[in-house]
Amino acid sequence: xxxxxxxxxxxxxxxxxxxxxxxxxxxxxxxxxxxxxxxxxxxxxxxxxxxxxxxxxxxxxxxxxxxxxxxxxxxxxxxxxxxxxxxxxxxxxxxxxxxxxxxxxxxxxxxxxxxxxxxxxxxxxxxxxxxxxxxxxxxxxxxxxxxxxxxxxxxxxxxxxxxxxxxxxxxxxxxxxxxxxxxxxxxxxxxxxxxxxxxxxxxxxxxxxxxxxxxxxxxxxxxxxxxxxxxxxxxxxxxxxxxxxxxxxxxxxxxxxxxxxxxxxxxxxxxxxxxxxxxxxxxxxxxxxxxxxxxxxxxxxxxxxxxxxxxxxxxxxxxxxxxxxxxxxxxxxxxxxxxxxxxxxxxxxxxxxxxxx
Length: 357
Description:
Layout: H1 4-14, E1 21-26, H2 31-44, E2 50-53, E3 63-67, E4 74-78, H3 86-96, H4 105-112, E5 118-124, H5 131-144, E6 148-154, H6 159-164, E7 172-175, E8 178-182, H7 187-194, H8 198-207, E9 212-217, H9 221-232, E10 237-241, E11 253-254, E12 263-264, H10 265-277, E13 281-285, E14 289-293, E15 302-306, E16 311-319, H11 345-348
Parallel strand pairs: 1-2, 4-6, 5-6, 9-10, 9-16, 10-13
Antiparallel strand pairs: 1-3, 3-4, 5-7, 7-8, 11-12, 14-15, 15-16
Helix pairs in contact: 3-5, 9-10
């Protein structure tokens, strides 16, 4: 299943596994089950820390779960996680095997403290560039908190299920059997939706911040550039962004950024954020501006009210709210978004294979 080069690379990664665990596969007599078995046999052949069992009883076949003795981890892949999802598989193997994630300590503790029952089902396609972020985020949360479980499902392989749920775009996320969200999401975005107290805690923190000399609203390339220029002059600078990186996060091939022949959106967004963090800039991510209240007198403070109830004040505001995907504004476009109206043929195309569109 894996070629020699990939095996060599994977073997190096698997040396970081410190805690033994099992892969429990649920298979049938189909060709896809044979493919999955070959992949799993390749993996366990590269390390003595992982063993393979093929007596799983999951109704979805082929599928496999990662099970660590003494730990209640709900992490399952239904399908063969190759393509864009191979990285998700490798990260899952490492994290279940005890290798720490790069997530900040505060967020890890927030995940561990969540109570309740959270059964996630995440539908992806192997050609979807936005799906791995969601799969990896929910898998990590499942590793950290036994109350959170995630099954990542290849929609192209489980067509009957996709049709029954009328899923027409990926990533699509279900929580406890109900639609939860669709589209690219990272850990903190998911946390903001399931941790009911997060918004009020964030608002309290934001309300306690001192007024900024310059507050940039928007975290795309323009917002990042504005923040860097302000901070370089020694000005107290903040950035409030709904998603740092903006629409760039959803763009794969970027070939018109001068001096860079080619790059990918998520890579460029990370570079933008890293560059901003080189300076003393207060980045407030996942904050959506709801209202602008201009200063009541010359030299006074402007105020930005946020959707979570918090507010920020500044002597100067820079609005860099960026762009969004162009919409056709035809009847039904919003109503059927993600249910037939799609913007990414690479992501959603496999769900329509063999169908008349």
